[in-house]
Design brief:
about 80 residues; 434 Repressor (Amino-terminal Domain); mainly alpha
């Protein structure tokens, strides 16, 4: 995962660097260093973000109200 992909993942979740830092017990500075390339992006952070994204998409898919889902499907026809 590149730093741009990591940043895009945070954006998809609607998270800021600070949110990821708080959720993982890291400092804001550490996360900032990963995103600027000052420090390498740890594998565990990449895996954690990937898991959060999977949960995000599953939640959207599984918890979309049926009426909203029907509207979306009808708009795509």
């Amino acid at each position: 995962m590149t730093t741009d992909e990591f940043r895009a993942g945070l954006d998809t979740l609607g998270w800021k660097q600070t949110d990821f830092a708080l959720a993982t017990g890291m400092s804001k500075v550490a996360v900032s260093h990963w995103l600027t390339g000052t420090a390498p992006l740890p594998i565990w952070a990449q895996s954690h973000l990937a898991l959060l994204l999977r949960l995000h998409f599953l939640t959207n898919d599984l918890l979309t109200p049926p009426t909203k889902l029907a509207k979306i499907l009808n708009e795509n026809r």
